[in-house]
Amino acid sequence: MDDFSPSSPPAETDTGYRRKPEWLRVKLGTTPEAAETRRTMRRLKLNTVCEEAACPNLGECWSKKHATVMILGDVCTRACAFCNVKTGMPRAVDPLEPAHVADACAEMGLEHIVITSVDRDDLPDGGAGQFVKVIEALRARAPNTTIEILTPDFRNKAKSAVERIVAARPDVYNHNLETVPRLYPTIRPGARYYHSLRLLEQVKALDAQIFTKSGLMLGLGEERLEVQQVMDDMRSADIDFLTLGQYLRPTPRHAAVARFVPPAEFNGHAAIARAKGFLLVAASPLTRSSYHAGADFARLQAARSARLA
């Protein structure tokens, strides 16, 4: 059996969920460090995508005091079929949020921080200005911390939205394509595949020193060759870092899981991606955009240095 031969039955049926395979079972538990991380987030009135997106790695990451902060509130203006974040009309942008993010970073002693956000189609700049303010606050309060951002697509916003963020010079700019183009109408209906791809291409054109990163969820019904075509598209846009993880259905209202992709298949995808020239590839059932982000940033730097040498 080769790496891409399905070794598990369809993940779900019309009558309900199947049990997750062994490779997706995570012990949740808690630790004093995780509880302290939660208290810090609540005290500073910060949201985290770890909680809002029901990330399976929350316990592990929070125990290491790693939390992905979600700025611009906890209500999204989009309604993607895969996402657990609330949808509706968001509240006003919190002017104290950038300082609170910087305080949390300093208090937790983070060497690398990941900042993401909900989509804010209601704002003229899509929230780009708040990203800039957060980056500036982090540079002032925690100058030795490297900064990774995971932004929305800023669709129908001025080109300057991305330009402003790039000018603030985050160390890593991430924007996830999420799935293959064929599935966009049902999985990511408010977005456009080629717009997202061009956003990442624009980042590289504006500042080639910023690492670019993007990811896909597998198990939504995509075909192997479609995944490889997305890899080619990403490399054409000079994306440095690819992440691949298993889609997990947050609630019965969300898109069903078509298949639980076995670890061997993730390994096969990763081998092909490396051969296509990505500086770094993270591929496993539990891989998420910010999972092990600090260690991955060090690996990105080392990979770039080795390639230049």
UniProtKB/TrEMBL annotation:
The gene is lipA. [4Fe-4S] cluster 1 binds at residues 50, 55, 61, 290. It catalyses: [[Fe-S] cluster scaffold protein carrying a second [4Fe-4S](2+) cluster] + N(6)-octanoyl-L-lysyl-[protein] + 2 oxidized [2Fe-2S]-[ferredoxin] + 2 S-adenosyl-L-methionine + 4 H(+) = [[Fe-S] cluster scaffold protein] + N(6)-[(R)-dihydrolipoyl]-L-lysyl-[protein] + 4 Fe(3+) + 2 hydrogen sulfide + 2 5'-deoxyadenosine + 2 L-methionine + 2 reduced [2Fe-2S]-[ferredoxin]. GO terms for molecular function: 4 iron, 4 sulfur cluster binding; lipoate synthase activity; metal ion binding. It comes from Hankyongella ginsenosidimutans. Belongs to the radical SAM superfamily. Lipoyl synthase family. This is Lipoyl synthase. It is found in: Cytoplasm. Binds 2 [4Fe-4S] clusters per subunit. One cluster is coordinated with 3 cysteines and an exchangeable S-adenosyl-L-methionine.
